[in-house]
């Protein structure tokens, strides 16, 4: 039931690892990159609560509750992912990112809800960790695709303002895997029907209408559980950190470690491929960590909060260490620590959240919870990164990674706000 997340993560990893490279190739200045990313979190802020609300009220005898949204998102994501590297202007690339992120969001939120739908509380940590394991595989492979294409003889350079073929091939392969893996989940996974189908139909009929739906979503936002709000603080600092990485890892590392700034040069494009390789490392480590957690959570109960605190703190140290590395190979160590945080971010908050909300509203609450993912990204995109790293640390772009590390450490400490044992421990 989580296999489709392999494809979703191919989309996210290619987007996160290489859209900034595309923006730079098309002439974007480093300081303007975050604002070019703003469409992605803005889309998530709007799309995910709506999709969650609609999927809670959907039931199809063949496709169930969540799977219709998997299919719609898969088709749109595949098209957007394939065409993104063919952008010939910045506005086209930004538009492609907007469409891609909106499409992936349509599929992603129901995947989170599906795990909570099908598993009892005692198995949810295990379920979300297995999902994270699949995400780790996707991150690792997709982040290395341009490098793999280069090794196979595909050109890694192009004329100024043109995206190299290695990136185009990687996005095409990612599009194929995205559609195939989501389709596999759609056609091999069953969903449980509502316990009382007639009551479900009556409630759905009573909640029909655009304004009623919007009103319901806002009621749920205002009445969200206190645990959800506390988790939101943790999520804010966590996702601010990772948005900073996705926006600035390529310019920061190519400039600081490889001393390459000419985006049409072989040195820059090889360095950008290497950055993708390092980003793949955090995916690989998150996969290994998730595999370890999957074994542990299948055997014993865990303290979700303490595990999440440790993982986020380790990731923070990893980001800060990027500034200190003296040899490129040392970045694998830095991103290994980041991988611990990534594995936990993709599993523990959702396991804790699913233990604190009404199962009948799982979709809409998972969608609302996404607000705490996209709001920090919006804050970062409209100037939060540029203002903070320059004010706190200095003008060099590598200080964005120090800012990301500081943010993850704050996220780690914010876990102390969560005190409900029913949430912090497996049921």
Mean pLDDT: 83
Computed CA radius of gyration, to the nearest angstrom: 21 Å
Number of helices: 18
Under CATH, the topology can be stated as Growth Hormone, Chain: A
Tally of separate domains: 1
Question: Which sheet architecture does the biggest sheet show?
Answer: none
Order of helices and strands: HHHHHHHHHHHHHHHHHH
- Sheet-strand content, in percent, reads under 5%
Number of strands: 0
CATH architecture label name? Up-down Bundle
Helix content: over 70%
Shape verdict: globular
**Oligomer designation:** single chain
Helix/strand class: mainly alpha
Say which CATH homologous superfamily is assigned.
MFS general substrate transporter like domains
Which runs of at least 5 residues are low in confidence (pLDDT < 50)?
none
Q: Look at the structure and give the CATH class.
A: Mainly Alpha
Q: In whole angstroms, how far apart are the ends?
A: 22 Å
Domain Major facilitator superfamily (MFS) profile: 227-427
Organism: Mongoliitalea lutea
Main location: membrane
Protein name: Sugar transporter
